[in-house]
Amino acid sequence: QQNKILKVIRKNIVKKAMELLEELSEDGEGYKSFYESFSKNLKLGIHEDSNNRKKLSEFLRYHTSSSGEDTTSLKDYVSRMPEKQKHIYYITGESKESVANSAFVELVKKRGLEVIYMVDPIDEYCVQQLKEYDGKQLVSVTKEGLELPEDEEEKKAFEEKKTKFENLCKVMKDILDKKVEKVVVSNRLVSSPCCIVTSQYGWTANMER
């Protein structure tokens, strides 16, 4: 019976905390100050509390490639997504400056798509559990298999490039041997000559670091 009482107390405390968070999140400057102090606790909650994960995700705030000095919520990010965009793009790293200048975000930004900058070490664990928001999958731009919206002409041009450089990729793979899993032509770069991506289901480079 005591356990039942404790469960009820816990449930009511969590419910009250959620209500207070929701109220506080509507106060711009007040929430900014709160978030700077307790963002890690919120993210830890997303990692550990599956029952309230969806609700807690509403209180996350991140810098993005379009937010400047301000932070944005996932809800606001989704509201700005072009109709053709199906996923939420993010990149993890050491600092806002390093991820903003990363080769991985070149094409995404050039296409006019927004990238979320996750620079807190706990973000790696948080995003592994969150996986999606509002039906939109969270996709790391540093992993293989990145798919950006493109028309038939762009798809055709990329397939032609892959065919053209197929032999070069084989030669480079032979030279690098076991240092890499494979060498492929990429359509994610603009000015950088190459980049090293991690497998879709493996750790990100930032996590390995």
Automatic annotation (TrEMBL):
CC per GO annotation: cytoplasm
GO molecular-function term, one example from the UniProt record: ATP-dependent protein folding chaperone
Native species: Hirondellea gigas
Alphabetical list of SUPFAM superfamilies matching this protein: HSP90 C-terminal domain (SSF110942), Ribosomal protein S5 domain 2-like (SSF54211)
Protein name: Heat shock protein 90
Species classification: Eukaryota, Metazoa, Ecdysozoa, Arthropoda, Crustacea
UniProt record similarity statement: Belongs to the heat shock protein 90 family.
Entry annotated with the keyword Glycoprotein: no
A Pfam cross-reference name: HSP90
Subcellular location: Cytoplasm
Keyword terms: ATP-binding, Chaperone, Cytoplasm, Nucleotide-binding, Stress response
UniProt keyword Lipoprotein present: no
Gene3D superfamilies per the UniProt record, alphabetical: 3.30.230.80, 3.40.50.11260, Heat shock protein 90, C-terminal domain (1.20.120.790)
